[in-house]
Write a structure and sequence with these properties.
The structure is a single chain. The chain is built from 15 helices and 7 strands. The chain is of the alpha+beta class.
């Protein structure tokens, strides 16, 4: 039996190492890392902190006792920790050493760190055993901390983590750190592309695209679950969708500054020019080399189509033709689900956000508009998925704010 368990563990580790190299989105990877780590050590819960600007940023959480799926508002917490010896995660990040705690509420007098019971008090959870290891790359760079909570026995009773768990998790964390570092670089590359847009269009900010990407990923997951799609299929598509949705307005770099930087609503002629950003965005991904390229082109082209067929750019035989004209709007399921989801995510963010020429619309008024536009502007099933996870949507808004504390967004019309 023990030999079989060892073989299963090795197989799981090797499978993770191979498959993690194909996961492009950082959040999708953190979800997989945490799931695998918990299954290896039979942990009920866990979290991942990533190093960001010399602090630890709370980046992902699982908890089987409190919630069945990771898609919840806790994922979008803005909690940060100093990298010092005063907290458990801070200690692991500052020293590069792993810790094993049998009872978080009764720490040995010899340790320098303390346990923060705030989450337990807020949620009603009871943390006992903890195993925390550094996410350290082969170059000895610490990119974060992986923290597991409450090891469980066969009867789901909480037990201490073992030294074997510690050794196994440290080996796992080394491989996970390499994959996480790669995914962090991918996200940074995407944000650099967004900064190019931001130089042209002051409304096209990093927080805006992070919000739209996160909204789209969470709405898709809820929609896909209600459709009964396979879990692996959901995770794979959600991984790509978050990144592709962040690039929805990339085509704006081809629009004149006189239009992009106009400190007022666009007139009809200007809006007709603005419409072409959908086509220009799709053209960036000519000759797609990956599923991500294909999905990015699909979203760029379709995120202003409407369920009732009154959107744009409509049916165009060849978006690479020299002389283009807007076609009759696509409608209903003729619009790819990615476009239907990003349409809602983008409009919602525009309505609840302040612009240079308007104040943010009150939240209750925005929700009324979204509901009223179900079956007109928006796919009713997408609206239903959005409303079902509105606590998550609100948490995303709070996490990704611009420096001013407001959430600025792109233009949606004249």
């Amino acid at each position: 039996m023990q030999l079989q368990e060892t073989q299963d563990t090795l197989t799981r580790l090797l499978t993770f190492i191979e498959e993690s190299s194909h996961i492009k989105d950082l959040d999708a990877l953190l979800d997989r890392v945490l799931l695998e780590a918990r299954q290896l050590t039979h942990a009920d819960a866990g979290s991942i902190f990533l190093v960001d600007n010399k602090v630890l940023k709370f980046s992902y959480i699982h908890n089987d006792t409190l919630f069945a799926a990771p898609g919840n508002k806790y994922l979008y917490s803005n909690q940060t920790l100093e990298i010092n010896n005063l907290s458990m995660a801070g200690y692991v990040a500052s020293t590069g050493e792993s810790i094993v705690i049998d009872d978080a509420h009764h720490l040995p007098a010899t340790v320098s760190f303390a346990f923060n019971p705030a989450f337990d008090h807020l949620s009603g959870y009871h943390t006992r055993s903890i195993l925390a290891v550094p996410l350290k790359t082969s170059r000895e760079r610490i990119v974060g901390v992986l923290q597991l909570i409450n090891a469980l026995d066969a009867n789901r009773e909480v037990i201490p983590f073992t030294e074997t768990d510690k050794l196994l998790l440290n080996y796992f964390a080394q491989n996970a750190a390499v994959a996480i570092e790669r995914a962090m670089m991918t996200r940074e590359t995407i944000l650099r592309m967004i900064r190019i847009c931001e130089l042209r269009d002051p409304n096209e900010t990093g927080p805006h695209v992070n919000r739209v990407g996160a909204y789209a990923a969470e709405i898709y997951q809820q929609w896909a679950l209600t459709k009964g799609l396979d879990g692996d299929q959901i995770n794979k598509h959600k991984d790509l969708l978050r990144i592709a949705a962040m690039l929805h307005d990339l085509g704006k770099v081809a629009i004149s500054d006189l239009i992009l930087k106009k400190p007022a609503k666009l007139d009809d002629d200007e809006f007709q020019v603005m419409k072409y950003h959908t086509i220009y965005g799709a053209r960036f991904f000519e000759n797609p080399a990956s599923d991500l390229d294909q999905l990015s082109a699909e979203i760029a082209l379709n995120h202003h189509e409407r369920w009732d067929g009154r959107g744009y750019p409509g049916r165009i035989p060849d978006i690479f033709a020299d002389h283009l004209r807007m076609g009759m709007g696509k409608q209903v399921e003729e619009i790819p689900i990615s476009g239907r989801i990003v349409a809602l995510a983008d409009v919602f963010d525009a309505l609840v956000s302040k612009r240079v020429y308007k104040e943010a619309m009150p939240e209750d008024q925005v929700l009324t508009i979204i509901k009223d536009e179900s079956g007109k502007h928006f796919d009713p099933e997408v609206v239903a998925a959005f409303l079902a996870i509105y606590d998550v949507i609100d948490a995303i808004r709070q996490k990704y704010q611009d420096e001013s504390g407001e959430a600025y967004s792109c233009r949606i019309g004249p």
